[in-house]
Structure formats: structure tokens, C-alpha cells
Design brief:
Keywords: Isomerase. Belongs to the glucose-6-phosphate 1-epimerase family. Its EC number is 5.1.3.15. Helix content is 5%, strand content 47%. It is mainly beta.
């Protein structure tokens, strides 16, 4: 079943499979804000203080970061895709899976910020205990362009201090808090407070363990992984996050940062992130 709903006062689409698996995606930002695997509980974190509207980023779910990661360029932080209205294209159910597709194309507003013609599509497919998310970008103009991108996934935790993330041992990373470059020497990784790391060439599957169970995380097309949690001090400074909200989430993001994607006219890039509870 696929039905229109309202979330945070904004139009959204809810997808529900015959097995009970369900997900909800906002048209604002093309942002998935809920995923409940079949027979399971909510696995994405959405802040109770989250707000949505023109120009506003929604705290939680899976924000789409495009065409710029963070402040690595001249655009607004994390680009513009996560704060714009996407178009619902289609949805269907077959072979036990439910799929939805949303689209964002360039217009006068985007070209004033980033002078390129493009078409971005976000596809989500859920079945059983699995969620697949795909971001595709087409260069529809007559000149090449480059971009960075990410799926800024907020995963729900019972207590991030007890969470463990496996699969990054030996991977080179930059600690964005210190600017230092290191290699991961601990596996699984535990969390004691603020963390902000970009792991480069991290293509192997990851595993996140919490009291909710073990989740497998895979990606394809995205070369890098970002692991982020604001910790108690930064959480207290964020208006759209409760003071203890940092304990309930961990961002494990599929990203292209170290090597920006370069697209010739008429070319397409595809990146995917998948979760299995």
C-alpha cells in the first residue's frame, strides 16, 4: 500500500508492504523519515524537535546531501537538495517489495546557486527486514560538472554509549574535530561523546550493534563513510535536537567526499546504501 500522509506539516508518502514493513518519505528534501522493518520497531531517528519547510533542514531520517558536502565549497552547508521540494514520481508493489521514486530537477533557484542542469532521483525499496536507498544524478546540461554527495543517515539507538560499529578497521579517516588524519585501530568502535569522522575508501559492509539488534549496512557507488554524533554539548546548542537526543542516534553516512563525482553531459552517477535489520 502507498498512501499520501502529512509529516511535520508537510506532504509525505507512506509505503507499506504486505509483510508489514513500512517507510515514510517527505517530499520536502526527498527525505526518508521512518523505516520499520517487518515485525520490528522504528530504526531511523527523527528528532521530536524536527521542523520542515522551505529552506529548513529536517533533523533525522535520511537527508539527501547534494551537490556539496558540509562547507566544502561555496554553496550553503550540505548543498540545497535537503531543503527543497521533490516531486513524487511513482510507486509500486511487486514480488513482495514496495518501491517509491522521487525527483529533483534544476530550476531558477538551484541555478542561481549552482549553474548546472541536472536531474536527481531518490529511490527507496523495502521488503522484510531490508531497506535499499538509491540516489541517481544525471547531467542534463551541455557542460561537465562535479559534486559531492551523501545519504546523511540517522540510525536510532537505545543508548549510543552502548552502541558498537564494526567494519572500519584499518581504514584511513580524517577527524573533522581536530583535522588530523589517522587509521582506524579499534574494531568494533564504541562512542563516548562527540564524533565527526570521514572514512575514505570504506566500501566494506558495516555492522551496527545496539539493544535493538544488529544491523548490516552496505553501500555501492559511495566511496566514503561519515560517522557523526554531536555529543552532549553540541546537542544542547541545537534548537531542533533535545539535550539528550544525542544518546538516541548515530549517523552512519554513505558519501562521496574524497573524490568528487565528475559527470560529463548526458552521463549518470548512481550511489546506494542498504540496511538489513
Amino acid at each position: 500500500m502507498i498512501e499520501p500522509v502529512q509529516v511535520l506539516g508537510q506532504p509525505a508518502m507512506r509505503l507499506r508492504g504486505s509483510d508489514g514493513a513500512q517507510a515514510t518519505v517527505l517530499l520536502h528534501g526527498g527525505q526518508i523519515v521512518s523505516w520499520i522493518p517487518a515485525g520490528d520497531i522504528e530504526r531511523l531517528y527523527l528528532s521530536p524537535q524536527a521542523v520542515a519547510g522551505p529552506g529548513q533542514a529536517v533533523r533525522g531520517g535520511i537527508p539527501v546531501i547534494f551537490p556539496q558536502f558540509e562547507r566544502r565549497g561555496t554553496l550553503p552547508r550540505h548543498g540545497f537538495a535537503r531543503t527543497m521540494a521533490w516531486q513524487w514520481v511513482e510507486g509500486h508493489q511487486r514480488a513482495g517489495a514496495v518501491t517509491g521514486v522521487l525527483r529533483l530537477t534544476d530550476d531558477e533557484t538551484t541555478r542561481a546557486l549552482w549553474p548546472h542542469r541536472f536531474e536527481a532521483e531518490l529511490s527507496l525499496s523495502l521488503s522484510g527486514l531490508r531497506l535499499d536507498v538509491e540516489l541517481a544524478v544525471d547531467n542534463t546540461g551541455d557542460a561537465p560538472f562535479s559534486f559531492t554527495a551523501a545519504l546523511h543517515t540517522y540510525l536510532r539507538c537505545d543508548d549510543v554509549l552502548r552502541a558498537r560499529l564494526s567494519g572500519l578497521y584499518g581504514t584511513r579517516y580524517v577527524d573533522s574535530l581536530t583535522g588530523q588524519e589517522q587509521r582506524q585501530e579499534i574494531d568494533p568502535q564504541g562512542f563516548v561523546g562527540e564524533i565527526d569522522r570521514i572514512y575514505f575508501d570504506a566500501r566494506e559492509p558495516l555492522s551496527l550493534s545496539t539493544a535493538f539488534g544488529r544491523m548490516r549496512i552496505e553501500q555501492e557507488g559511495f566511496d566514503d563513510v561519515v560517522v557523526w554524533n554531536p555529543g552532549p554539548q553540541k546537542a544542547a546548542a541545537l534548537a531542533d535536537l533535545s539535550d539528550d537526543g544525542w544518546l538516541e542516534m548515530l549517523c552512519v553516512e554513505a558519501a562521496c567526499i574524497g573524490r568528487p563525482v565528475k559527470l560529463a553531459p548526458g552521463s549518470e552517477w548512481v550511489g546506494r546504501q542498504a540496511f538489513e535489520a
